[in-house]
Amino acid sequence: MSNYHIKHLEEYFQVYRKSVRDPEGFWEEIAEEHFVWRKKWDNVLSWDFEKPEVKWFDGAKLNITENCLDRHIPTRGNKTAIIFEPNDPKEETQHITYRELHQQVSRMANVLKEQGVGKGDRVCIYLPMIPELAIALLACARIGAIHSVVFAGFSSNALSTRINDCDCKLVITSDGSYRGGKTLDLKAIVDAAMDDCPGVSKVLVVKRTGGSVNMKEGRDLWLQPLLDNAYADCNAEIMDAEDPLFILYTSGSTGKPKGMVHSCGGYMVYTAYTFKNIFQYRENDVYWCTADIGWITGHSYIVYGPLANGATTVMFEGVPSYPDYSRFWEVVDKHKVNQFYTAPTAIRALAKEGLEHVEKHDLSSLKILGTVGEPINEEAWHWYNNNIGKGKSPIVDTWWQTETGGVMISPIPYVTPTTPTYATLPFIGIQPTLMDEKGEEIKGNQVSGRLCIKFPWPSMARTIWGDHKRYRETYFSAYDNKYFTGDGALRDAVGYYRITGRVDDVIIVSGHNLGTAPIEDAINEHPAVAESAIVGFPHDVKGNALYGFVILKDIGESRDRDNLRKEINQQITEQIGPIAKLDKIQFVSGLPKTRSGKIMRRILRKIAGKDTDNLGDISTLLNPEVVTEIMDNAIP
Asked: Which of 74, 247, 321, 333 is 20 to 30 A from 159, comparing alpha carbons?
């Protein structure tokens, strides 16, 4: 029996050594023992990072939904697969069992087939966090269609760009969505996008808000009547392990999104195995990831990873601040959540609001806490550890990317001793390395460099849809035979990794390489500071100087700004040194962020460098309005 559930540190090292000495043997054992295949593979792995080309379990036949649904019916048919927690706490929670989910996915799959969707066709899903979103993903996978989920907050322009890039023939959306106290008209956004999407033949509409919408005859259809008439069983399309499962767009540094393509077999094996270990999931646990399925976190750790393990996964439609800032903790208490996975941005926002929101709820069910999306700063880590985990629930600070498909570096709870701000050790089978700017591997510990991976792992993206050349240039051209993550990292004395931010966030000031993350950490420890972002801007003497964008807590709002600037720079001097002091500090109400919480430093760099003529499409940001405010108040 393979080590599917790692239980202590010695076992981690033993399994890790096995996974890097004999990767093929290791992953073959995991794949054989824990998944259902229609046909075994001819070859576990073939790879060439020069082309680049990677194939896992080549020749194998499977359908991922048989692993997420069918095989659980005999033993877990009546177990809750999805708990749907609506935006409004007064609305009734839904519990969907594995048997019910199987039927609903089958109905949706049959509807798609009736609308002419078949194996290999692309389907765009533009839905809020309602059960139909997870069902639509699984229905596409059931019939071999390739799903492309677009976050239901993106503009019509962002939506049409993604639809056209991968030539989607059908769109699934809803009349609207609830977001906190607001209602968004999703159908109107889709209608505007359709003006530029001649390839879309059908738009299926879920009724969620009941708002009046325009239905175009011959193109638009209400989904529910179609589902009511659909048969509740649908044979699974048999897929090759290397067939595409989905396309998910991630922001490119140029502003043009990249459609990352993930495969059926390797993605399934890796996401399921990481989920089981990184969250130490046990049979009757209730697991909650607060992400949106519009992001890779939702694909891997709300839908596919949990369901492949027969888990109970929470889908949350709301936001952490509605009706008030106790909403997360109310949901944890209500459903007795055992594993809670969220973003540092959310933690910082909640920490800012005071403990009265936390203290009125029982969080004793929590066994494991997790963070995702960006490295967590030390202050937020301690707040999360002390007030949410009560010092007894380990925090898994997970590092991974849309491109990697699953978590790459992370503690395993109750196994790996944690250190605040460190992602700690590589996950099983992952072989990270640090590279210098000359392309040489940096050996030993207490070093920093550019983070690369030197051996393929099952869930890595196989290409960029329609642009393999860009895939090679972006990820495999910087260092021979290595996947370049784009991130910098340091490795400490015991071999723990800490992500220091994007390499393009390393600023050379007077010949010194300064990572933005440590400077931001120092600033964020100032009692008046809630959050900060640092970028470089051209300087006649230093080459580059540092520009800080700083959000204040309420206690800082009334303070003298010049004194605050001096105190912030003093804090940086004490923690890092005078070389890291900021030339300019602008106090802002918010920072431009992606919906997953990543700060768009590309935009801040342009503002700091007075190059605001071409900011690219900012409509996909969580808060595009803040960009105008920052530009209007930029320091000359």
From this structure: 321
In angstroms, the CA 126 to CA 123 distance is: 10
Tell me the CATH number at 246.
3.40.50.12780
Whole-angstrom Cα distance, residue 139 to residue 234? Answer: 9
Cα separation, 341 vs 289, whole angstroms? 5
Nearest-angstrom CA–CA distance, 162 and 112 = 20
Contacts of residue 454, Cβ cutoff 8 Å, sequence gap at least 6: 431, 432, 433, 481, 482, 483
Cα three-residue angle 167-169-173, rounded to 5 degrees: 110
243 with 141, same domain: the answer is yes
pLDDT per residue as tens digits for the range 47-64: 999 999 999 999 999 999
Q: Are 300 and 92 in contact (CB under 8 A)?
A: no
At residue 113, φ and ψ (nearest 5 deg) are -65, -40
Burial (0-12, 13-18, 19+ Cβ within 10 Å), 149 = buried
Contacts of residue 21, Cβ cutoff 8 Å, sequence gap at least 6:
none
Q: Which two tokens stand for residue 604?
A: 């801040």
Q: Give 302's DSSP letter.
A: I
Q: Encode pLDDT of 295-325 as tens digits.
A: 999 999 999 999 999 999 999 999 999 999 9
Q: What is the pTM (predicted TM-score) of this model?
A: 0.86
> Can you read off the two tokens belonging to residue 242?
């290397």
Q: What are phi and psi of 320, to 5 degrees?
A: -70, -15
The whole domain housing 156 covers 62-319+398-418
Q: Which of 418, 446, 471 is the last residue of a domain?
A: 418
Residue 593: beta bridge partners? 599
- What's CA 364's distance to the chain center, in Å? 27
Average pLDDT over the chain, rounded to whole?
Answer: 93
In the numeric block, the tokens 């008209």 are attached to 185
* 436 phi/psi in degrees, rounded to 5: -95, 180
Contact 45, 63 (CB under 8 A): no
Domain membership of residue 463 (yes or no) is: no
| Count of other CB atoms within 10 angstroms of residue 506 | 18
In total, how many domains does the chain have?
2
Q: What tokens does 371 get? A: 């963070």
Q: How many residues does the chain have?
A: 636
Predicted pLDDT at 517 = 76
The answer to whether 138 and 306 are in contact (CB under 8 A) is no
What sign for the dihedral angle of Cα 47, 51, 52, 54?
negative
Main-chain phi, psi angles of 532, to 5 degrees = -150, 160
pLDDT tens for 253-279 read 445 789 999 999 999 999 999 999 999
List, for residues 242-251, the tens digit of each pLDDT value: 999 999 998 6
Pair 537, 605: CB distance under 8 Å: yes
